[in-house]
Amino acid sequence: MQLRYAAAYLLVTMLVLLLLNTYPLDFARDLVFRTKEASVMGKAEMVASAMKGLDRLTSEGVEQVVQLLNDMSISRIIVTDDAGMSLYDTAYSDNTKGHYTIYPEIVSALEGNDVFYIRSSPTEIESRAALPVMYRRMAIGCVYVVEKDAEQAALLAGISRNMRNISQLILLSVLVVCIVVVFLFSRRMSRILDAIRVVREGEYSYQMAADSNDEFGILAQEFNALTNRIQTTETMRRQFVSDASHELKTPLAAIALMTDSVLQNDMDKQTILEFVGDIGTETERLSRMTAKLLQLSRLEEVRSAPMEPVLLSGTVEKVLRILWPLAEERGIRLVNHMEDHCVILAREDDVYEIVFNLAENGVKYNHDNGTLEILLYREDHSVVLMFNDNGVGIPEEEREHIFERFYRVDKARSREAGGAGIGLSIVHDMVEKYGGTISVSARDGGGTRFTVVFPLYEEGEL
Length: 462
Ligand code: ADP
Prior knowledge:
Elements: H1 2-50, H2 59-68, E1 76-81, E2 86-89, H3 93-96, H4 104-110, E3 115-121, E4 124-135, E5 138-149, H5 150-200, H6 215-264, H7 269-299, E6 308-311, H8 312-329, E7 333-338, E8 343-346, H9 348-364, E9 371-379, E10 382-389, H10 396-399, H11 411-416, H12 423-433, E11 437-442, E12 448-455
Parallel strand pairs: 7-9
Antiparallel strand pairs: 1-2, 1-5, 3-4, 4-5, 6-8, 9-10, 10-12, 11-12
Helix pairs in contact: 1-5, 6-7, 7-12, 8-9, 9-12
The chain binds adenosine-5'-diphosphate.
The site of adenosine-5'-diphosphate has 23 residues, from α9 and α12.
């Protein structure tokens, strides 16, 4: 890419230089030629008009006239008669006198035309003018003037030479600049490519040096932000896989141990039944855990189901109906105070999951004969859903961790209650997905309060 830019840059420079080397020079030459034409023709005319009035041209007559007009800084003057015979020639006055001078300019002038011709070389500009000498509308002879100018030719050649030298210098500088720019560009580009390759090989912590403020610097900064992000995701993924395997290992080890005991020991039927019962409980816990893990992984997918207005009081009632037997078993009272018209925009299944997890925790981590109170109300443009229990409570230093995956305050108690420490992290992610917030606080006199705030769905919002 950079080579293409450099080539285009060079091409444009070359075109500009070419233009500079032709147009102004042509213009200057044209100007000089015109001046020459005016001056040489003027001189020829002067000679021709000095001979007007003569009815016949003779060598002596012409010589007299031309000498009168001396110092015209002309290289050569030839005057011929009407037949082209030389009567006077400043260059070879004797030699050509009486000889025919059949120059094309003279022939044309004798036919009655004014002729001008100019030729230039680096050393000389030669201008020739031929005019007829008229008498009674008849050409009785011709004045032929030649002027050679080395000074102007040298001037033109000098300009041209200077232009060429300057152009070569410019072209050389542009070439050097192009080479340097292409080299720097490729070096920085290959640094970026190398960095991409390193990260592709799995070195996610790789950081590029962002040592400039130009586009490359910005690219390096963006690249570093990207690798940071990948690094965080990767760490989280590893942590999650290791936590998940650890959590699955514990019940699996218990099941293996109990199965071994049943197979190897000579147990009575009652003990065997107890062991098998425990195996069943562990298996149930495993399947609950895998179900939640599945749910967690699905949470990261883009859901295709559309969002819809969900009436929260309806979902809470459904959850309470399901939890009723569990609560009643331990004498726990389920109380609710719910306002109407608390609607949010979400997916019904997710909302059910949020309410169920929080309400189930309120029962699971409650004392026997305790109370779980659920409040639902609107506040400005939000809906507040509150779970108040007077259970075991969560120590202050643990509260900031409980939304982390696999975090359990009291492992023994959680395991006993069939928990795996995933529920609250699912709830947290789901609430955030719908633009809400979740917080936890302690209640006076023991117990825990979970407060979820969702944006209120207002009529016609969809
Ligand atoms: P689990 O499946 O273990 O219940 P959660 O993610 O739902 O996992 O909860 C994480 C931990 O937070 C639980 O193990 C428990 O120690 C604590 N916890 C959650 N809810 C409550 C509550 N209402 N009262 C006391 N402790 C709670």
